[in-house]
Each structure stands twice: as C-alpha cells, then as structure tokens.
UniProtKB/TrEMBL annotation:
Pfam families attached to this UniProt entry: HTH_18, PocR
Keyword flag Plastid: no
Gene3D superfamilies referenced in this protein's UniProt entry, alphabetically: Homeodomain-like (1.10.10.60)
A molecular-function term among this protein's GO annotations: sequence-specific DNA binding
InterPro entries, per database record: Homeodomain-like_sf (IPR009057), HTH_AraC (IPR018060), PocR_dom (IPR018771), Tscrpt_reg_AraC-type_HTH (IPR020449)
Protein's recorded name: HTH araC/xylS-type domain-containing protein
Organism this protein belongs to: Blautia pseudococcoides
Keywords, alphabetical: DNA-binding, Transcription, Transcription regulation
Residue span(s) of domain HTH araC/xylS-type: 173-271
Length: 277
C-alpha cells in the first residue's frame, strides 16, 4: 500500500504548495481521489444551485474531452472565470484517468469581478458569495504556469503507479485482502475508494459480483468472525474485543453480534467455554 500512500501524499504536498484542490478522475469522469476531499468554498456554494452544478459539469466534461482528443494537458477558464488544468493519465499507452488542478484567479485589480458577476444570479446571499470569492487562491500568471508544470510531473508520476494499472479483478482482490488485514481500523467505502483510487460505483458493483456480498456486509462479517475468535481464545472484556474488531461502541458490537449469531457475545463465550473440546 506504500505506493498508493505516496500518490496521496504528492496530491497533498501539491495542494500545500499551490493552495489548489487536486483531483483524480477515472475515464468516466468520476472523481476517485482528491485533496482536500471537500470542494472549495466557491465551488461548493455554486454547485448548491442546479444550474451552477450543470455549468461546472459541462465545462469539466468539455475539458476532459479535449484532453482525451489532444492527449496533452489543457489549461482553461471555467464559466466563472477560474483557471483550471487537466492532464491525462496513461497505463501502457491507454488512457486511464485525468489529473485536475483548480481553481485559481489570475492576480489583478479586478480578479474577483467576473466570478462575482457570473455567480450572483445563482446565489441568494451576496455576502456569502463575496466571502467565498475572497478565499479563492490568487496567483500571478508565471506562478500559475510553474504550478501547472509541477502538476504535469504529478501526472507522469501517477501514470507510473500500479494503482492506475489494476484490472477490476485485481482491484477487488486487493480490497478484499486489505479488509482482512485492517478490519480493526475505521473502514468505509469512501475510505477504500481513496485508498485504491477507484470510483465507488465500480468498486461496490465488482466486489458484489466477485464475492456475492456487499463491502459493508463483508467488513461486518470479518469483524464479527474475529470477535468470535477473541471471545474463544482470550479473556479480553467485551468492550476490549469490540474495540479490537473496529467497533468504537460496545453496544453496537453487541447488537451486530446478536443479529448474526442469535446470542450476545457473553452468551457465545459461555457456550464455547462449556463446549467439549
């Protein structure tokens, strides 16, 4: 897993250098990794309005299409006048995704005028809009060009990563093994998607097709099976076992255990203790 961690780290470091949100998309234009995970204030505010969301998706899709066609990085301004950049990601010559960096305004006395005028019809609170625009990074053109060059290096790095090369069968197999190893940690589907740089829809569908169980149910199954093992082989308290199996709450562990085995953890321990060897 070190490789995937290093990819996330480079996204994080590029964000700290630039102040721009960095995203990875698959070839179906689904976001599969980002740092920060949340949208910026301006984009989040705009996309609350259906027309704002439509305009953002439309411009992003056009940019992805251009990158697919021209097979090179594309820098552009979105509908609201913010600079964004998209670079292709390849695996053995085949397009496997996109790296996007944005959003920023070019430095100047009227830098925020265009986004304000374009966005105002979509926002009910002008003061909130002004606050959101004030938080958009503002950079000189030479700085933007330099950061885009660094972004291209990131794209080349990610292109060489195994995470972009995994087939769906290999992917779900790795996810399965990861759950078996890390069941004692916080695990959500979104966490797994970020870890393996894949879309939620693709991962959940392929996992169920392969193992005939949902990811959520498999995580619960692995945790409860290990709970049974600890109940049989240790003298740990129920609370300690719950925590060791990834449950932050003893009551939640007990309810899940009862639903699956028809008895409480303590009843299970007594039953197994009394069972003949």
């Amino acid at each position: 897993m070190e490789q995937s961690l290093s990819i996330e780290r480079i996204l994080k470091e590029l964000y700290h250098i630039s102040g721009f949100r960095i995203c990875i998309y698959d070839t179906n234009f689904h976001e599969i990794a980002a740092y920060p995970h949340e949208l910026g204030c301006f984009c989040g505010l705009i996309q609350k309005h259906p027309e704002g969301m439509r305009l953002c998706v439309e411009h992003d899709t056009m940019a992805f299409g251009r990158v697919r066609e021209q097979e090179k990085l594309h820098i552009y301004k979105c509908h609201f006048g913010l600079y964004e950049a998209v670079a292709p990601l390849y695996s053995f010559g085949a397009l496997t995704g996109y790296l996007m960096m944005g959003q920023t305004l070019e430095a100047g006395p009227d830098a925020g005028r265009m986004p304000y005028e374009k966005a105002l019809p979509l926002v009910s609170d002008p003061a909130a809009l002004e606050e959101a625009i004030s938080r958009i990074p503002v950079r000189g053109q030479s700085t933007i060009d330099s950061l885009v060059t660094i972004m291209e290096v990131c794209a080349q790095y990610i292109t060489l990563s195994n995470r972009m090369n995994l087939s769906k069968n290999e992917l779900v197999s790795e996810v399965h093994r990861y759950i078996e190893k890390h069941y004692d940690q916080k695990l959500t589907i979104d966490d797994l998607c970020r870890q393996f740089f894949c879309s939620r829809a693709s991962l959940t569908r392929k996992f169920r097709e392969t193992y005939h169980i949902s990811i959520h149910d498999h995580i619960c199954k692995v945790r409860l099976e290990n709970g049974c093992r600890l109940l049989r082989t240790t003298t740990l308290s129920i609370g300690e076992i719950a925590f060791s199996c990834g449950y932050g709450d003893q009551n939640y562990f007990t309810r899940a255990f009862c639903r699956t085995y028809g008895m409480t953890p303590m009843q299970y321990r007594k039953k197994e203790t009394l069972s003949p060897i």
